[in-house]
């Protein structure tokens, strides 16, 4: 264990060293040639080019929409060009950012999971944004205050703001109203509790489709399980402490929650057996292979566009209490940039999260509008009036908590997800799986204290 810790610390120090080197000389990293005025990264066209890494984790035309935002910004800012680079899913994006940093060419701005905030801060991959906010004076503070508390709460590390909410979501229930009617269920009364969900799922299940789908694959299981933990803990505790140094995996409430998921598969046989894949659920739902799914509001536009049946949305059902989980990506600015590049990246972030643009982004994607002022716009008011399924996400934010967030979060996720899968495949009982996950996660987190 000591050797593993030492190796990890050496890697962290190496990464920090790369960041320092790329930031030397007033932040002059390898961003391209320097012109006669000392501006770095200015191309032959005389413009400052910003590199923007972005992931796409949901279906639809999200990548094209991102490109449109970048093009619109460049049209309004004639001296700055934002070059968007699609970097795969969120995990792929973190890997590519690390590779770029080690090569001395980090992206100027990037979107990564809000849950990566401790990692971004501790490794120096991202810079705190407080100074940029302060430089905007009252306008800067008003800008920050306008974001929904449920999204801003996971932008902070040690009291400093490291990221700005962008493509944010919450997990909700999507359900097929036609299947509800065929099963003798009221299509306007989705399940409110775990017991009701089990009852509904059993009634919905037949030879053609399962009643419910909840993702259990690595990289996604932790999101749904965070919701289950929030719903079934004694006092609303999450899966980790707020400081990111400890996990709370093996509580009685969490063991009970994992057993409930296994019962859906093994006892009631109303959920697909084995490891249910996150990316498969929307396709299965649209194909009529499952009556209810727990999934991101980021897929709302995709489902709305492609469903050939009437569907509804609802809050996640309650265990001991009703609760849900937030997720999705935030904007970060890479550490070690010149002041000029910092300011240009900051202007782009503010542009992309402008009230009207954030509202339009919600309409186009299904992600939740991140700013309170969005809900005062005519476009959101009309959208919710015409498509009330979308309003469920906003209403649920008030009872939502952050997705599992710790230092070294990717490794912690892997530990939890691997052990959830061990329980699914019957290699371990829920109690054994979560106890072992607790031990392994705490050993990993010791090095960060």
Order of helices and strands: HEHEHEHHHHEEEHHEHHHEHEEHHHHEHH
The helix tally amounts to 19
Low-confidence stretches: 1-40
Q: What is the alpha-carbon Rg in Å?
A: 22 Å
Strand content bin:
5-15%
SSE class? alpha/beta
Q: What's the count of strands?
A: 11
CATH architecture of the largest domain: 3-Layer(aba) Sandwich
Q: Specify the biggest β-sheet.
A: 9 strands, mixed
CATH topology-level name of the largest domain: D-Maltodextrin-Binding Protein, domain 2
Please give the alpha-carbon distance between the first and last residues. Answer: 15 Å
Mean pLDDT: 90
Q: Report the CATH C-level class of the largest domain.
A: Alpha Beta
In short:
The chain has 449 residues and is of the alpha/beta class.
What does this structure look like?
- With 449 residues, the chain is α/β, with parallel strands linked by helices.
- It folds into 2 domains: 26-168 and 331-386, D-Maltodextrin-Binding Protein, domain 2, CATH 3.40.190.10; 169-326 and 403-446, D-Maltodextrin-Binding Protein, domain 2 (3-Layer(aba) Sandwich), CATH 3.40.190.
- Helices cover 47% and strands 14% of the residues.
- The chain has helices at residues 2-27, 62-76, 90-102, 117-123, 130-135, 137-145, 149-152, 177-182, 194-204, 221-232, 252-266, 280-286, 300-306, 339-352, 355-365, 378-386, 391-396, 409-424, 430-446, and strands spanning 48-54, 80-86, 109-113, 156-157, 160-161, 164-176, 210-213, 290-296, 311-314, 324-333, 400-401.
- Strands 1, 2, 3, 6, 7, 8, 9, 10 and 11 form a 9-stranded mixed β-sheet that branches.
- The two termini are 15 Å apart.
């Amino acid at each position: 264990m000591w050797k593993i810790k030492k190796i990890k610390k050496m890697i962290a120090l190496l990464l920090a060293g790369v960041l320092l080197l790329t930031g030397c000389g007033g932040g002059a990293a390898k961003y391209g040639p320097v012109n006669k005025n000392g501006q770095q990264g200015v191309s032959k066209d005389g413009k400052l080019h910003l590199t923007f890494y972005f992931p796409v984790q949901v279906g639809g035309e999200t990548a094209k929409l991102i490109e449109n935002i970048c093009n619109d910004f460049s049209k309004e800012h004639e001296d700055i060009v934002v070059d968007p680079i699609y970097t795969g899913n969120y995990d792929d994006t973190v890997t590519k950012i690390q590779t770029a940093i080690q090569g001395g060419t980090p992206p100027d701005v990037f979107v990564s999971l809000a849950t990566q905030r401790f990692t971004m801060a501790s490794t120096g991959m991202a810079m705190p944004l407080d100074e940029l906010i302060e430089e905007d004076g009252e306008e800067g503070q008003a800008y920050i205050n306008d974001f929904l508390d449920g999204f801003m709460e996971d932008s902070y590390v040690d009291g400093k703001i490291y990221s700005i909410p962008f493509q944010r979501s919450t997990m909700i229930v999507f359900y097929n109203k036609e299947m509800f009617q065929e099963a003798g269920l009221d299509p306007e009364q989705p399940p409110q509790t775990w017991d009701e969900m089990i009852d509904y799922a059993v009634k919905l299940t037949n030879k053609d489709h399962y009643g419910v789908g909840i993702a259990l694959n690595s990289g996604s299981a932790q999101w749904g399980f965070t919701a289950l933990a929030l719903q079934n803990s004694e006092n609303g505790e999450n899966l980790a402490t707020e400081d990111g140094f400890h996990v709370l995996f093996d509580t009685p409430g969490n063991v009970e929650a994992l057993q409930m998921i296994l019962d859906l598969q093994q006892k009631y046989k109303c959920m697909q057996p084995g490891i249910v894949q996150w990316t498969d659920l929307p396709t299965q739902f649209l194909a009529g292979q499952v009556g209810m799914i727990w999934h991101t509001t980021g897929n709302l536009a995709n489902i709305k566009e492609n469903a050939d049946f009437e569907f509804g949305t609802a809050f996640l059902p309650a265990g001991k209490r009703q609760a849900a989980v937030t997720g999705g990506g935030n904007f970060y600015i890479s550490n070690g940039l010149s002041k000029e590049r910092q300011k240009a990246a900051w202007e782009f972030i503010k542009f992309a999260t402008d009230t009207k643009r954030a509202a339009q982004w919600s309409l186009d994607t299904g992600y939740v509008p991140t700013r309170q002022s969005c809900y005062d716009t005519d476009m959101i008011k009309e959208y919710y009036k015409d498509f009330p399924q979308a309003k469920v996400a906003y209403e649920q934010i008030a009872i939502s908590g952050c997705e599992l967030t710790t230092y070294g979060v990717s490794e912690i996720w892997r530990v939890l997800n691997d052990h959830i899968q061990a329980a699914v495949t019957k290699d371990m009982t829920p109690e054994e799986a979560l106890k072992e996950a607790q031990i392994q996660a705490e050993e990993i987190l010791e090095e960060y204290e």
